[in-house]
């Protein structure tokens, strides 16, 4: 296997993950991952069967099933209804921010954070600007809460899903370990944003975004009832220890069997780019993990006690990697090259890598999705504005999480 070519493709892939696209082209992260995976198969001389062996199909199946479930909620008008209720609720800006944070976190814990980040921002922006409120602090609260809320469950975000599948992590123990820091993190988000935007909640000038048409969104009861029943069945299956990937596919199949909703509507709402990103990164990192040099390196690290199974290494490593290559690529890379990680350390990896994604706008896919969806209605989420809030939020929530993991004895210092 040509080691230099493999490492060159690997390095170029993660540069693209950090930059957000292939420099000079309009190829985004998902496209870059697919291009890199194809190149990796070519230079290693692997066949498609070997390449498929590098891909964690269980993780992709679980993520696909959750996306179909979320699409059912979307078709019912649930996300638009939630955003509308928040922006039209009576109360101070601080109260509206708290409602945004709580709703985003709760939905992300069950339906995956990237999905919530995609569905909610446009209508939230329009509703806030109609009230002459600055959408920026609310968008930062939304992005941060989707990350922190998703950290509480093993199905809350793509990296948790992968870690849970690889480590066979228990659904309820995951909540017990990660739920308390997540709840504390929501308080931190509220406090930091309220402090930074005190006295600056209102727009200084009339809004310049796309005007709303005045109609209030409504719920379609039959699709919503089916979505709620499917979500309840899925949570019961997870709670009793059923295979999560199979349970998610069965729920997706049940939603496809509908007299009201066309299959193409559900399939069209699936984030195929995210699935493509996962698949491509699995192939790229799988090829690197198979290199004899990689195994030698990890044996040397283990011999010097430098594996990320302690908080003193895991916390700074996830913070740096999540904000350079992104938390999803960071986790995929670590799990491909880290042989037999302790199960307890995986709880720490899931929690800390998710919280680290709030540091910068580029730290997680959810942040970028919120920014892009807000831009679709003319609202700009500045990088520096996000960083002013994201840095203290991340440092505080990561410190709380590390202290909690240490006190529980889950991950040693």
What does this structure look like?
With 413 residues, this protein is an all-alpha fold. The chain has one domain. Helix content is 72%, strand content 0%. The protein has 21 helices and no strands. It has helices at 3-19, 29-44, 48-54, 57-75, 78-87, 93-111, 113-119, 121-130, 135-150, 158-167, 171-196, 221-239, 244-256, 263-268, 272-289, 292-303, 311-322, 327-337, 343-356, 365-375, 383-408. Helix 8 (121-130) packs antiparallel against helix 9. The longest helix has 26 residues, at 171-196. It is globular.
Please supply descriptive tags for the structure shown above:
single chain; 413 residues; mainly alpha; 21 helices; 72% helix
Task: Write a short abstract of this structure.
The protein is 72% helix and 0% strand.
Any chance you could write out the topology, listing elements then pairs?
Layout: H1 3-19, H2 29-44, H3 48-54, H4 57-75, H5 78-87, H6 93-111, H7 113-119, H8 121-130, H9 135-150, H10 158-167, H11 171-196, H12 221-239, H13 244-256, H14 263-268, H15 272-289, H16 292-303, H17 311-322, H18 327-337, H19 343-356, H20 365-375, H21 383-408
Q: Tell me the strand percentage band.
A: under 5%
* Number of β-strand runs: 0
Number of structural domains: 1
Number of helices: 21
Rg result: 21 Å
Tell me the helix content: over 70%
- Major beta sheet, specifics? none
Order of helices and strands: HHHHHHHHHHHHHHHHHHHHH
Uncertain stretches of 5 or more adjacent residues: 207-212
| pLDDT averaged over residues | 86
Query: Helices and strands: which structural class?
Result: mainly alpha
Shape field: globular
Distance between the termini: 38 Å
């Amino acid at each position: 296997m040509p080691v230099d070519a493999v490492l060159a493709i690997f390095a170029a892939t993660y540069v693209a993950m950090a930059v957000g696209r292939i420099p000079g082209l309009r190829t985004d992260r998902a496209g870059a991952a697919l291009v890199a995976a194809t190149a990796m198969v070519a230079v290693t001389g692997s066949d498609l069967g070997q390449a498929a062996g590098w891909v964690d199909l269980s993780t992709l199946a679980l993520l696909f099933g959750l996306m179909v479930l979320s699409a059912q909620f979307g078709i019912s008008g649930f996300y638009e209804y939630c955003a509308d209720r928040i922006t039209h609720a009576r109360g101070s800006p601080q109260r509206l921010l708290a409602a945004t944070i709580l709703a985003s976190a709760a939905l992300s814990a069950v339906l995956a954070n990237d999905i919530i980040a995609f569905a909610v921002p446009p209508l939230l922006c329009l509703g806030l600007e109609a009230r002459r409120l600055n959408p920026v602090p609310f968008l930062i609260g939304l992005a941060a809460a989707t990350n922190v809320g998703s950290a509480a469950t093993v199905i809350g975000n793509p990296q948790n899903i992968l870690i849970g599948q690889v480590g066979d992590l228990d659904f309820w123990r995951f909540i017990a370990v990660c739920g308390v820091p997540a709840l504390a993190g929501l308080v931190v988000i509220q406090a930091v944003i309220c402090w930074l935007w005190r006295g600056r909640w209102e727009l200084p000038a009339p809004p310049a975004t796309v005007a709303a048409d005045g109609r209030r969104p409504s719920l379609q009861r039959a699709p919503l009832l089916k979505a709620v029943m499917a979500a309840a069945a899925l949570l019961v299956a997870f709670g009793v220890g059923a295979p999560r990937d199979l349970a998610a596919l069965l729920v997706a199949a049940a939603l496809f069997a509908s007299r009201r909703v066309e299959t193409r509507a559900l399939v069209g709402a699936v984030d195929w780019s995210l699935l493509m990103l996962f698949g491509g990164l699995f192939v790229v990192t799988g090829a690197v993990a198979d290199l004899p040099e990689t195994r030698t390196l990890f044996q040397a690290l283990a011999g010097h006690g430098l594996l990320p199974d302690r908080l003193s290494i895991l916390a700074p490593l996830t913070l740096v990697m999540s904000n350079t290559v992104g938390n999803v690529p960071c986790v995929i890379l670590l799990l491909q090259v880290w042989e037999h990680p302790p199960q307890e350390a995986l709880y720490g990896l899931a929690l800390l890598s998710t919280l680290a994604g709030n540091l910068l706008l580029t730290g997680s896919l959810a942040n970028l999705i919120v920014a892009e969806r807000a831009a679709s209605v003319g609202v700009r989420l500045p990088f520096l504005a996000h960083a002013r809030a994201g840095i203290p939020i991340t440092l505080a929530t990561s410190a709380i999480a590390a202290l909690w993991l240490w006190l529980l004895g889950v991950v040693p210092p």
